Structure formats: structure tokens, C-alpha cells
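Database export, one record per block. Field names are fixed; values are copied verbatim from the stored entry.
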Amino acid sequence: MRSKEASPQLIPALAALAGNIGNEVKGYGSLSKAPAEAMGNVRNDMYLTSETIRLMDKNKVGNFDADTSGKLQLFKQQINNATRFIPLWVKIAVAIALGLGTMVGWKRIVVTVGEKIGKTHLTYAQGASAETVAMRTIGAADMFGLPVSTTHVLSSGVAGTMVANGGGLQMKTIRNLLMAWVLTLPAAMLLSGSLYWLFTQLF
């Protein structure tokens, strides 16, 4: 439970957990050399430590002096650098997948957004308004760490301009978009989980 008050056990528990992380990583030589069966536990300990330090700093728990607070933040940053990153191969794979998907399906996306959301074709002013809203919404989501879909945000912005313009909406397309939004998450989870299981069995 989150609390602004530190229990007597919090600081010693955090120190013990941090020491345990150091001993584990030292024993393996580096985090990358940790065996697969131990990696989950080590990373979970690191996430827990980082989040605890963040909440302690946010809620001013511990009344540490400036030097100790600085060392805690440095330790937190080092933990985050070791755990919260995207490997280069993942960036490349995602870029290729997005590029190939756009190459294959761009026309259908453009036609749907431009012609099938509203009962009239999208005008330049509506497009500019929808893009501006999408840009600000995605920027705000990035700032606050909220997961959003750029396509969903843009489609919603276009729908809003159609309503404001009095052109009306094509409810069949709206229903299809809503169904796609509902089904995308479980379908993507199932596919990614299946691929991960397959790769762990093969490699």
C-alpha cells in the first residue's frame, strides 16, 4: 500500500533488497550473464527498488540529506538504464513491421479515414483539425506515459470533425472501428504470447 509515511521496516528492507541485487549481479559478472531462470527475479527486484525510491522521493519519505538523496537517485537511474530500455533489434524489427504494413495497407487506411468515417469526403480544414488534435493528444499521452494508438486517435479526431461539420458519420464504419479497437488488444496479446512461446522452444 502506498503511503506518505515510512514504516520502520521500509529503509532497512530497501537497503537489503538493493544489496541483494548487487550481490546477484556481481555473482553473475553482469546482468546480461544472469541465467534465464534467474533473470525474472533479478529484474523484478530492480523494478521494485526503482519504484520504491521514486515513491519515497515523491512523498518525501525518509528525510534524507542532499548527498544521500543524490546517491539514491543515481542508483535508481543506473537500475533504470539496465532494465528500462529497448534493444536495437526490437527497434529494427518494429520499424520493418510498420514499414511493410504501411506499404501493403496504406490505401485501405487512407480511404477509410478520408472517405468512410463520415458521409462526406474529408476537407483540408477537417484534416488539419484532426491532425492537430491527434498531435496534441499523442504528445500529452507521451508526456504522461499513457498508452495510446495513433490510428485510433486520428480516426476519433476525423469523426469529431465530421460531427462538427454536420456531415454525419457512417455508422457501419464506426462499428467496425470499435470492434477492431476491442479485439486488437486480446488478439495482439495472444499472437505475441504464442510467438514468444515458440521462440523460447526453438532457441
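Remark 1: The two ends are 39 Å apart (CA to CA).
Remark 2: Residues 88-202 form one domain.
End of record.
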